TrEMBL record:
<dbReference type="Pfam" id="PF01738">
    <property type="entry name" value="DLH"/>
</dbReference>
<feature type="domain" description="Dienelactone hydrolase">
    <location>
        <begin position="39"/>
        <end position="227"/>
    </location>
</feature>
<dbReference type="GO" id="GO:0016787">
    <property type="term" value="F:hydrolase activity"/>
</dbReference>
<dbReference type="InterPro" id="IPR029058">
    <property type="entry name" value="AB_hydrolase_fold"/>
</dbReference>
<dbReference type="InterPro" id="IPR002925">
    <property type="entry name" value="Dienelactn_hydro"/>
</dbReference>
<protein>
    <submittedName>
        <fullName>Carboxymethylenebutenolidase 2</fullName>
    </submittedName>
</protein>
<dbReference type="InterPro" id="IPR051049">
    <property type="entry name" value="Dienelactone_hydrolase-like"/>
</dbReference>
Amino acid sequence: MCHDTTPSSLPTPGKYQLRHSQGLKYWDFSNNTDSDVRVALLTDIYGCNEFYQSMSTLFAAQGWQSHLIDLFSDLGELPEATRDAAFERRHKLHDKKTYNLIAQYILDNKITAVVGFCLGGNFVFELARRNVKVNLIAYYPFPAGLPNQDGLDPAFSYLEQLQTDVTVLIGDDDDRVGLDNVTTLKKISESNAALSVKAYPGSKHGFLEDLDSADPRLKHNAEDSLATCLDSIS
């Protein structure tokens, strides 16, 4: 859905250790830091590719404990880095079961912030719904929901009553999420202070890759979103 390429402005993926937490596998980029900031990254359907390794390395460079969650550890690697292959694997995921693993992992590892992209952003919405008290950031989630054999309730069914803060970073021209859905998301945020939505004019789905854009406006949007993300984590 989102990131199958990596902007050159992000750091080269650093060293990590593979770890497990009660059925959930994650890549630990923490470099043995004892920081009280512990951030977990939830990926899109492409999984733990170079883009997300680079983002986790960026988080670790801030001096934070940085974990990259492998949502697809039981489903194997992608046979090829294509949307079709990624969607085929995604449809095998059980979202409710996966959410429960994420929630337990957050508790067991004393996580203080979760950043989710696309599919991962929908898990962030669910964490907010369940009042999990960590800093929550969602890049281009799907508030109208995503089909799944073990699906979560669409975020639109509860966002108006949301009580736990969540920051949403989304393109105002995100036609994959749906322009009407972006408009509705912004409208809800105007009446519910727990939902903070930054919708970037002209930006589309996956706009963080515009860190390398030759268009100054799109590049600024990506840079501002990343600065907002980093600030929201800590």
